[in-house]
């Protein structure tokens, strides 16, 4: 599908791919795991009508470089995001982050001094405990899983990604999300990012959420089976300047399940969060 990230940002662990769409007030979109910036495609293209939209694939994800030995942990992604903001010349952009990207944005802000005008979080990985039984099983035995025959691995990833959606995903969209995780580079990269997903990286910042002074909007798919909506209400209660919204009919992949309502929420966030 037509989604291109033509720009490159070189890090010690590999090349990060990114793109800039449109012109106007800057807004940055962060994806989660095991996804890529493609999940924001529809929202990004609409926002680009009157905003300067920045999207990127985290190191080891999507179209960014995948290679053995990479540090693709939350620790690394938070530093990379902070460096990207400097590379882009953005001092206080509006930031919109989903899932694992929410933890990246929170760590960059609290630990690395990244400044935002405001932050919108969609179904973020932010509070302990996290990780589904399947996720923990793979994490404990990733060396076994990464040796699966390619066809079995691809089927596993398809079912895993599909479980993040409540109404289901169109075949082309599902193919786009699964494709980066297949082949000689993608298959080990899939298990690498799970192996390095350590809750201690959110434990390091969870107790500091009360220090966040900027407005934070928390949004959650009402049918999210990966992280229950109660976690969203719990997170919003820890943030001094926050609101909380449920998105009906959407699972964890809220921006694909309900692109129209999510776009409306993002536009309202950009209008009101100052």
Automatic annotation (TrEMBL):
Q: Which GO terms describe its molecular function?
A: monoacylglycerol lipase activity
Protein name listed in UniProt: Alpha/beta fold hydrolase
Tell me the SUPFAM superfamilies matching this sequence: alpha/beta-Hydrolases
- One GO term of the biological process aspect: acylglycerol catabolic process
Q: Does the keyword Transport apply?
A: no
> Residue limits of the AB hydrolase-1 domain?
26-259
Q: Which UniProt keywords apply?
A: Hydrolase
Q: Which GO terms describe its cellular component?
A: membrane
Q: Keyword check for Hydrolase, yes or no.
A: yes
Under the heading Pfam families, the entry gives: Abhydrolase_1 (PF00561)
């Amino acid at each position: 599908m037509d989604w291109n990230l033509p720009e490159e940002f070189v890090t010690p662990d590999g090349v990060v791919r990114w793109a800039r769409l449109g012109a106007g007030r800057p807004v940055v979109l962060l994806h989660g795991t095991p996804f890529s910036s493609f999940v924001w495609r529809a929202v990004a293209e609409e926002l680009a009508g009157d905003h300067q939209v920045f999207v990127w694939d985290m190191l080891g994800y999507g179209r960014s470089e995948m290679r053995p030995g990479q540090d693709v942990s939350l620790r690394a992604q938070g530093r990379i995001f902070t460096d990207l903001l400097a590379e882009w010349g953005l001092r206080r952009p509006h930031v919109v982050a989903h899932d694992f990207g929410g933890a990246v944005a929170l760590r960059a802000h609290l630990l690395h001094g990244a400044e935002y005008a405001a932050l919108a979080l969609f179904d973020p990985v932010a509070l302990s405990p996290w990780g589904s039984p399947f996720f923990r099983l793979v994490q404990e035995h990733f060396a076994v899983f990464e040796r699966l025959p390619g066809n079995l691995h691809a089927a596993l990833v398809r079912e895993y990604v599909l479980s993040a959606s409540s109404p289901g995903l169109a075949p082309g969209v599902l193919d786009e999300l699964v494709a980066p995780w297949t082949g000689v580079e993608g298959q080990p990269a899939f298990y690498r990012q799970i192996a390095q997903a350590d809750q201690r990286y959110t434990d390091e910042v969870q107790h500091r959420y009360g220090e966040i002074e900027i407005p934070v909007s928390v949004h959650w798919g009402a049918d999210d089976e990966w992280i229950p909506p109660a976690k969203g209400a719990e997170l919003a209660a820890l943030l001094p300047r926050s609101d909380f919204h449920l998105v009906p009919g959407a699972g964890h992949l809220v921006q694909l399940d309900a692109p129209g309502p999510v776009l409306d929420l993002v536009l309202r966030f950009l209008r009101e969060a100052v």
